[in-house]
Amino acid sequence: MKGRILAVVVAAVLLLAVPVVLDSFSVFVASRILILGLFATAYNVVFGYGGMPSLGHAAFFGIGGYTVGIAITRWAWPMALTMPVALVLGAVAGAVFGLFCLRVRGVYLLLITLALSQAVFGLAFYQTELTGGDNGIPGIPRDGVPTGGGFYLLALAVTAVCVSALWAFQRSPAGMTILGMRESESRMSATGYQVNTIRVMAFAVSGAFSAVAGALEVYLQGSVSTASLSWQISAEVLVFAILGGARRFLGPFLGAAIVTGLEVWVSTYTDRWTTALGVVYILTALFLTDGVLGRLRRLRRGTSPPAEQAPDEPVIVEVRK
Amino acid sequence: MSWLTHTLNGLAYGSLLFLVASGLTITFGLMRTVNLAHGAFYLLGGYLAYDLASRGTDYWLAMVIGVVGAAVAGMAAQRLLLHRLTGQELPQIVLTLGVALVIGDQILAHYGGDPISPPTPPGLTGPVELGALVFPKFRLVLIGIALGLALLVSALLRYTPIGAKVRAAVDDQEMARSVGIRVPLIFLLVFGLGTGLAAFAGVWGGAFTSLSPDSGFEVLLLALVVVVVGGLGSIPGAYVAALAVGLVEEFGRVLFPGWAMFTLYASVALVLALRPQGLLGKAAPR
């Protein structure tokens, strides 16, 4: 326990020191890592924790982003208003996705979420009056929102609050039912739990915090476009989770940090980042299906099967069938 | 534009979708290998044929090289990468997405991001006049090719010894192995057939719409929709679903222009939510 408190304190000091120590570009990258890390952590509620492989989370990310873009450019809403609204809209969208996914598992769930997010993409693409269509909404004013190091600290605060909320949620009785559902649906429903409600709840919580991440991203970039709704975003967050380790709470966050860091590094050498990203996908699929954290844990224990988990950690078993 | 023309357009587009989906019905629907790089092989075939034809190679020869080239690339990917992940859906998804990203980005690097418009096959240009109706010859031929392909592939799977071996390998791998069917070889060949069909669709799809490095995923999505809505592994199902999607897409675009894509994908999600096994699929999956 003491070790854990120490680790948290050290991490907090390091995170707070970022804008003081690093140059402005690195601070931008760090902000991006926080945002994508939050997105990946929220995604994992459905994916690693709930055992439901979604390939449609770009929809929630994009809904959060468009909420901010539309609300600021039309009604000049302050951040204190856009963020909660994004959260609520993300939750609603998540619940709708969850309802569609009640009867499907595995690849089918993946395809339904993909189809739904393409439907959302279609809305953003063709409802040009509201969303600006293919051009998106550029040059969003950020009145009252700090930039640079200030924004980093703001993003850090929001991310810290949201990630802690997700941590608390996953360990709450409600959160544990998601885990129970993933482990054995039939047993859960035999014990009297409403499995359908649990699935919808998992999607709603995941969608809500994904939308918050999408909203933050728009404050960072100053624009929103259909790119935030594209399938690549959904695929990337899936890879964040697998690469970092979907079975650990902080695995997806780590995955987001690794891929984002890699992007910055590779982009200084070549324009072909997408090819490099594809190679990362391939290597992840071949060698890292239990993620960096899972791999480290196995190395440390010197055991090969990832059967045993520390009792105080939520156990997230392999998502593969 | 009359309703009849729209209907024919929808059918032609649906036929193109069936061409793309036919390969995916075999690899994903039948062999249960999730191949999200299918759209990338579509692009690969289309771009390869376009490149060769624009350098003066005979059109039909260019098409054959494009198709064979993509089939070989597909078999290489199966043998070197996908082969290790048999039965593991999630890693397959991540891996094939990676392959799709690499192929798409390399096409972008070599040919640029602007859409290309491959030529209509020689002999198929111009309109056909059927009474009052004037319709592009190419599209009419496409409708015929898709129907022919649907019959051919169904018959191949149903009545030939190779088809029987494929079905056996899918149904019970161990039993198939023990009676001497070389399952890995069958998987390899079937994957080559699937990617070859994707490339064939890419050549025709390029002439139908156009090709750009991002269009691969769009095509993949529509093909997935067709395969899953039709019922996994069912060629007749895929054919019916492809025509239905083609018609929905065409009429949706005409009647509700602001809602294109939304209407299509929302209805697809609804169909899957209510009937996960697809329209003509037999048992519920799992």
Fold and architecture overview:
The complex is a heterodimer of chains A (321) and B (286). By secondary structure, chain A is mostly helical. Chain A has a domain at 19-229. Chain A is built from 14 helices and no strands. Chain A is globular and about 55 Å long. The two termini of chain A are 35 Å apart. Mean pLDDT of chain A is 87; it is low at 306-321. Chain B has 286 residues and is mainly alpha-helical. Chain B has one domain: ABC transporter involved in vitamin B12 uptake, BtuC. In chain B, helix 1 (3-30) packs across helix 10 and helix 3 (59-80) crosses helix 8 (183-208). Chains A and B meet through helix 5, helix 11 and helix 13 of A and helix 4, helix 9 and helix 11 of B. Chain A: Pfam families: BPD_transp_2 (PF02653). Chain A: The chain crosses the membrane at residues 27-46, 58-77, 83-102, 107-126, 151-169, 190-212, 273-293. Chain A: It is found in: Cell membrane.
If you average the pLDDT of chain A, what whole number results? 87
How many helices of chain A?
A: 14
Number of strands of chain A: 0
CATH-assigned fold name of chain B? ABC transporter involved in vitamin B12 uptake, BtuC
Termini Cα gap of chain B:
46 Å
Low-confidence stretches of chain B: none
> How would you spell out the order of helices and strands of chain A?
HHHHHHHHHHHHHH
What does the radius of gyration of chain A come to? 19 Å
Subcellular location (chain A): Cell membrane
Membrane topology (chain A): Multi-pass membrane protein
Organism (chain A): Nonomuraea polychroma
Keywords (chain A): Cell membrane, Membrane, Transmembrane, Transmembrane helix
